[in-house]
Amino acid sequence: MSDLSEEEEEAEEAEANLGEYEGERNPEGERHGRGKAFLPNGDTYDGEYEHGFRNGQGTYRFKNGACYIGKYVQNKKHGQGIFFYPDGSKYEGDWVNDQRHGRGMYTYANGDTYTGEWFNHNRHGQGTYIYKDTGAIYIGGWVNGNQEGEAELIYINHRFRGKFSNGNPLGPGKYIFDIGCEQHGEYIQSEQDKGEVEEEEEVAFHGIPKWKASEITKLTLWTPHGEKPPSPKEPPQVAAEAVKEKAAAEVNENE
Predict the structure, then answer these.
(1) pLDDT tens, 165-178?
(2) In the predicted model, is pLDDT for residue 190 greater than 90?
(3) Which of 34, 48, 95, 226 could join 77 via S-S bond, C-beta 3.0 to 4.6 A?
(4) Which keywords label this protein (predicted)?
């Protein structure tokens, strides 16, 4: 995920009121209202000001090709905004204090997309990630940028439902196939032969979980609150009453 460096952000902040400026000012001489600034570092800002701060709607163009179009509060990206990154990626959504925070959609340089919740610049909460190359779709939980918690991973002709930990499926789950069956099992954390791992590396080592199937069953049909739907052979009460009324009407006509 491409983003601005800390040095660039600090330069943006330090030079907020430096450089050439064309626009409105208040009686105190502060930038106030609509204006355009040409910063010494090569960046430009065209938008609203309030008491010398970028405040309101504006467009900030960075010399490296990045561009932000959206809301500002005291020089910070805050509110709804779109950020175009130098590598071609894009984020559109909520900002809080210069951080991606709230709900938003990130389109990555490789064509992948993430739509969901953000916290302090990271994917965090519930979200949907679509892989462009394979068409696979991950719908579920995220923690600090990693897939975590209950989720569903959807492929072209099957899907997996279970839990994820640090980006990998782990524990009980099931594969649901379009041909009409389910394969139950669990992902087990594999372990490398401890003899091949240095003692100080054992704590940090994590193998790739492996799928261990247990049984294959028919598809599990979901019904609200576990209630069984009425049998097709037994018409609902309303339909039964209608049949009775129709029969009575026919008897009366015959009489």
Answers:
(1) 999 999 999 999 99
(2) no
(3) 95
(4) Cell projection, Cilium, Cytoplasm, Cytoskeleton, Flagellum, Meiosis, Repeat
The rounded distance, in Å, linking the Cα atoms of 74 and 16 is: 10
Q: pLDDT for 192-224, tens place per residue?
A: 544 444 444 333 335 789 999 999 998 876 554
Residue whose token pair is 């905004």: 81
Q: What does the alpha-carbon distance between residue 50 and residue 26 come to, in Å, rounded to a whole number?
A: 9
Tell me phi and psi for residue 244, to 5 degrees.
-65, -45
Q: Do residue 184 and residue 150 come from a single domain? A: yes
Q: Per the domain annotation, does 102 fall within a domain?
A: no
User: Which residue shows structure tokens 């240095």?
Assistant: 198
The residue to which tokens 């579920």 are assigned: 140
Residues 101/94, Cβ–Cβ less than 8 Å: yes
Q: Please list, in sequence order, all residues whose beta carbon lies within 8 angstroms of the beta carbon of residue 181, skipping any fewer than 6 positions away.
A: 216, 217, 218, 219
Q: Does 141 fall in a domain? A: yes
Q: What confidence score (pLDDT) does residue 234 get?
A: 42
Contact 202, 192 (CB under 8 A): no
From 47, 41, 51, 50, select the one nearest 19 (Cα to Cα): 41
| Four-residue CA torsion sign, 46, 52, 56, 60 | positive
Same domain, 55 and 83: yes
What is the C-alpha to C-alpha distance for residues 155 and 134, in angstroms, rounded to an integer?
8
